[in-house]
Design brief:
The complex is a heterotrimer of chains A (123), B (98) and C (546). Chain A is mainly α and 123 residues long. Chain A has four helices and no strands. Helices cover 86% and strands 0% of the residues of chain A. Chain B is mainly α and 98 residues long. Chain B has one domain. Chain C is α+β, with helices and mostly antiparallel strands. Classes of the chains: A mainly alpha (123), B mainly alpha (98), C alpha+beta (546).
Chain lengths: 123, 98, 546
């Protein structure tokens, strides 16, 4: 696996974890309120956020397994989850407004990185 | 004040039960597994030892979750009966009972 | 205890965490640093930095090592050669002391201490004699489980007991944490005790798989010391048989034949191993009874392909070069499990990215222990609120904990930084240099600890954290002033290990300075400010944050 594929997959694993946790956190009333004020709630969007969040975490898992194989991949994934969660917690606490743009950027770039990694690997 | 003394005695009793009693139970389980598991003896000894370190913290937590120190001791003793019997029966230790 | 399960587990969590906390903080800090012990050692040997830029083929390096050992330790019964790698580009050799050494009789020190060792330049085979004597990252790594200044058996028991306390603390913490999912992303700063609890929860839960893994595997690494009964039950007094049977080791004759014979050239053996394991696949070569008739050469695969710390080995007859080991067989499940567990703990298999993630998780562990200790003190202080308001003082227990907390949490970083400073400042030619570097570590820590015990006030927290921050952040500057491998040089020459060290310590230093700054801003209202004058330790009651 080339250094480029390596790097892309590492990035994908981290970014997807971040996006995933961002989604899951916003699905909770408590954190939605941090952005939209007390008493607000995601309502209809809850399921959608949870689904997207979970998808992000699974994409992170896939990237980790692709990068490191069946055993080390899980270890890598747990590490990516920790890193992603820490960033989400800090963003929610200190820059809540930036969470959604950050999450969107992370999600989009994670998907792009995964596809690019596939391409780089195939070539 | 009597209740404080009773409380502290209870804590002390449980602490001894958890640390010493828990260790004893784990050691017996390690030995019993080592003696009885159907794999090679090296494998059995290894598995027994690995298991002991799962048993130990659980035993400690259980001791402190018990409703009374007496129950904690009783429970530990009861749990030790089977592995203790196995170890005694298979005559593991030179110089008598574990 | 008539309370429910949650409450009894909260009690257990508090006490196991507190009593073992200060030692655990040291263990976590040194352990986290140990992920990069090779890089630390390199940074601490500036003279070796030049040789890093050259790539040397394993065959050439091996030949140089053998030539060196033949000259330096011809009568030794065991040679150990560690080939250069990306992380550790020097060629390392170790050898057992010659057998007829009267000094060895009746000695108590562990066998390793009696081994000779030398670090060589792989291209020339010459000892990096110019490299200053230092234990480098190994000092921190060994402190992680051997502590210092005491027989290792004692320290391993102390660390082991603390690890068991830690395991109980983690498990009871999970049981007692009521809203582990709801609180997952919650952190509310500047709210006093609530904030410390949030920080403790976050650092614990967000890296929970790591904390569980690292604690259990840490115990497993020394488990036969702590729990010999399984082996004893089956093997009675023949403990050594257990280890050979477990690893299905090729039995190497332990006794030297003392009859001289030529040592087979190692290059063909290296070639065979490389064919099986790939380019650069050989990590270590151990020659037993070199230059004797029953010599044996064992080649071990380099770390990185598999998680288990037990690397496959190819064993050859040391005189004829004929392969002796049976075809590679997978270790049996339990042995494999132990190997993987130790492997996970030491993380030698990990790539750069994984290692960085482990490091981050380790830092979270340090934060978990520190916030837990501080949380205890903050909570306990509430009980003295009335007494303090009247100008009274806190109880002895809390006073002691305040001092120990500060001495540990601010003291250990100061000690580690002082160790690095000593490496650059002590004269290169100094006798007993490694011992002096260690003395700086403990001297700095001792000073900080005395200050902390004497006056664990908010001011002292500020001062000690700031000192640690300055010491850490100042390291790249010190590096610039005392060596040639400063950040500009290391980055432009691809010496990423050196550059990484400078950058990471800079970030840690800035972090400590930031913490010190936050200690300075008091959120206490006017009423409490009056009491601040009376109470020497109003520390952290307001959350220590702006």
């Amino acid at each position: 696996m080339s250094a480029l594929t390596n790097g892309l997959l590492i990035y994908a694993a981290l970014a997807a974890a971040l996006a995933g946790f961002a989604g899951l956190s916003l699905a909770m009333d408590r954190h939605w309120e941090a952005l939209y004020g007390r008493g607000s709630s995601p309502g209809d969007k809850t399921r959608w956020l949870q689904a997207c969040g979970t998808a992000g975490l699974l994409l992170s898992l896939a990237a980790s397994l692709a990068l490191k194989g069946a055993t080390q991949g899980w270890v890598m994934w747990l590490g990516a989850l920790t890193a992603g969660a820490v960033v989400v917690v800090l963003t929610l606490t200190y820059h809540a407004r930036r969470l959604i743009p950050l999450a969107k950027a992370a999600a989009a770039s994670a998907v792009v990185a995964t596809i690019a990694a596939q391409a780089a690997y195939a070539l | 004040m009597a209740s404080t003394i009773r409380y502290r005695a209870g804590v002390l009793s449980r602490t001894v039960a958890a640390i010493a009693g828990g260790y004893g139970l784990s050691a017996l389980i390690a030995a019993a597994l080592a003696l009885t598991l159907p794999t090679t003896r090296a494998e059995a000894a290894m598995t027994g030892t690995l298991t002991a370190f799962v048993v130990y913290p659980v035993a400690v937590m259980w001791v402190f979750a018990c409703a009374s120190a007496l129950r904690a001791w009783t429970g530990l003793l009861l749990a030790s009966l089977l592995p203790g019997a196995v170890v005694l029966a298979l005559g593991a230790f030179t110089g008598g009972a574990a | 205890m008539k309370e429910g399960l949650r409450q009894s587990m909260a009690w257990l969590h508090t006490w196991t965490g507190l009593l073992a906390g200060w030692i655990l903080f040291l263990v976590f800090c040194t352990g986290t640093a140990s992920y990069y012990k090779d890089e630390i050692t390199l940074w601490m040997k500036p003279e070796a930095h030049q040789s890093m830029t050259r790539q040397v083929a394993p065959a050439a390096a091996t030949a140089n090592a053998v030539a060196f050992l033949e000259q330096r330790a011809p009568k030794s019964d065991r040679w150990i050669i560690t080939l250069p790698s990306e992380r550790e580009p020097t060629l390392r050799t170790m050898w057992a002391p010659p057998p007829a050494d009267p000094a060895r009789q009746g000695e108590q020190r562990p066998r390793r201490a009696r081994f000779g060792n030398a670090t060589l330049d792989p291209a020339t085979g010459e000892e990096l004699a110019a490299a200053r004597a230092t234990r480098g990252g190994e000092f921190l790594y060994r402190m992680h489980f051997d502590l210092h200044y005491m027989p290792v058996i004692w320290s391993r028991w102390i660390v082991g007991i603390c690890a068991m306390f830690m395991l109980v603390a983690i498990l009871s913490g999970i049981v007692t944490h009521k809203r582990i999912f709801k609180d997952f992303f919650t952190f509310r700063p500047a709210k006093g005790q609530r904030s410390w609890l949030d920080a403790h929860n976050a650092s614990a839960v967000l890296a929970l798989p790591y904390h569980l893994m690292i604690t259990y595997t840490g115990i497993v690494t020394l488990m036969f010391l702590y729990m010999p009964w399984g082996v004893k039950a089956v093997y009675q007094d023949e403990r050594d048989k257990f280890f050979t049977e477990l690893r299905q080791d090729v039995a190497i004759d332990p006794k030297a034949s003392r009859v001289p014979a030529a040592l087979t050239p190692l290059q063909p053996l290296l070639a065979q191993a490389t064919a099986a394991w790939g380019e650069g696949g050989v990590g270590r070569i151990v020659v037993s009874h070199p230059k004797q008739t029953n010599a044996a050469v064992a080649l071990y695969r380099r770390d990185g392909k598999q998680m288990s710390v037990d690397q496959p080995a190819m064993v050859f007859d040391g005189v004829t070069g004929a392969p002796v080991s049976p075809p590679e067989q997978a270790a049996a499940p339990a042995a494999q499990t132990q190997g993987v567990m130790i492997g996970l703990h030491a993380a030698r298999f990990s790539s750069a990215a994984l290692r960085a993630l482990f490091f981050v998780a380790g830092l979270a562990g340090c934060a978990m222990v520190a916030t837990g200790l501080i949380l205890w003190a903050v909570k306990e202080r509430q009980k003295y609120a009335k007494a303090l308001a009247k100008g009274g003082r806190v109880g002895f227990g809390l006073r002691l904990v305040d001092g120990l907390n500060l001495g540990a949490i601010a003291g250990v970083p100061i000690a580690i930084a002082a160790y690095f400073w000593s490496n650059r400042l002590l004269p290169v030619e100094l006798a007993e240099r490694p011992a002096m570097e260690a003395a700086w570590f403990f001297g700095a820590w001792g000073t900080a600890a005395v200050l902390a015990m004497a006056r664990p006030s908010r001011r002292m927290w500020q001062i000690l954290l700031a000192v640690g921050g300055v010491l850490f952040a100042g390291l790249p500057i010190l590096n610039l002033l005392t060596t040639e491998s400063h950040l500009g040089y290391s980055l432009s020459h691809g010496l990423l290990q050196i550059a990484g060290f400078d950058l990471v310590v800079l970030v840690i230093g800035i972090g400590l300075l930031f913490a010190a700054k936050r200690m300075g801003k008091s959120r206490m209202n006017k009423v409490n400010k009056v009491n601040k004058a009376n109470d020497p330790a109003p520390v952290l009651a307001s959350g220590g944050a702006a």
